[in-house]
Amino acid sequence: MNAFIKNQIQQFQDNNQNRGRLLVSCPDQPGIVSTISKFLFSHNANIIESSQYSTNPEGGTFFIRIEFECPNLKEKASEMENQFGDIAREFSMEWKLTHVYNMKKVAIFVSKELHCLLELIWEWQSGDLMADIAMVISNHEEAREVVEPLNIPFYYIPANKDIREQVEEKQLELLKEHNIDLIILARYMQILTPKFVSANPNKIINIHHSFLPAFIGARPYERAYGRGVKLIGATSHYVTNDLDEGPIIEQDISRVDHRDNVDSLKKIGRSVERSVLARAVKWHLEDRILVHENKTIVF
After folding, report:
1. CA triplet 242, 246, 250: central angle to 5 degrees?
2. pTM more than 0.85
3. What is the pLDDT of residues 63-102, one digit of tens each?
4. CA 243 to CA 241: how far, in whole Å?
5. How far is Cα 4 from Cα 85, in angstroms, rounded to an integer?
6. For residue range 202-253, what is the model confidence (pLDDT) as tens digits?
7. Which of 96, 139, 168, 226 is the Cys-Cys partner for 159 at CB 3.0 to 4.6 Å?
8. Alpha-carbon gap, residue 36 to 260, rounded angstroms
9. Omega of the bond prior to 213 within 30 degrees of 0, cis?
10. DSSP code of 117?
């Protein structure tokens, strides 16, 4: 990690040492916002940003994300969490209180295609992706020369369907060793086992083209070209045991026409993929996503 990146991270942590985020979901009922606001006020916290949504004010589920400044947050954190636990029980809340200065530790998984990895690294180097990239894991060597000059640990672990469980045991050990908060599949072309996914619920973000379900399997761009598609897209989602059917975080498209050949379609697709993945990752790092059933609420 060079001096510029270190300075970016240090400045971010200094600026956010008293910044917290509170995410809540619970059965909708009167008094939720008022109670949370009074709780924060009692700790001299100032609300900076607040977003809320209800699936139905009568019998629905209520979601809220609050970002706040609180003097001496580090010292108050444990006490605040204990006190909010009582409120959570009263309103049957699922909740999370995060401290912005605690940067999330990220592991990036990648195979041969590097466009998404390169986008994430560029965003990180420029100070727009505030995370601790703790390691990159790949089943190919192509990413090594990109990663190691930045002093990011690189782990080459060959993988295929015949040795999948043994490979994932090594990967899970590394994730535990580095206390990883988020796994990013930056075009990692291996299917994860239910054991691996279950060990990391709503902590694995994937990216893929949006031709599904029309063009499932190999050579989707070639087959899409053969059908004369007019839109190229990408989808980023949390990974579940239903292949490519987890809660969607972000999507985007780009229009194409008959003048675009297969190589052009792939180039356009890679551009959309990398921007969609970067946005999804940023929203996760900023605690902007709440998962509800198989959907996401993104504030």
Report:
1. 150
2. yes
3. 999 999 999 999 999 999 999 999 999 999 999 999 999 9
4. 6
5. 40
6. 999 999 998 867 788 788 999 999 999 999 999 999 999 988 899 999 999 9
7. 139
8. 53
9. yes
10. H
Residue with tokens 């010292």: 75
CB contact set of 34 (below 8 Å; sequence gap of 6+): none
Q: Coil, helix or strand for 141?
A: coil
Beta bridge partners of 35: none
What token pair was written down for 194?
């239910």
What the block records as the tokens of 101 is 């200065």
Reading the block at residue 115, the tokens are 């466009």
Partners of 46 in beta bridges? 69
* Sheet strand arrangement including 182-185: 154-156, 132-138, 105-110, 182-185, 204-209, 231-238, 248-255
Active site residues: 244
CA angle 177-179-182, nearest 5°? 125
Can you tell me the distance from the alpha carbon of 147 to that of 158, in angstroms, rounded to the nearest whole number? 17
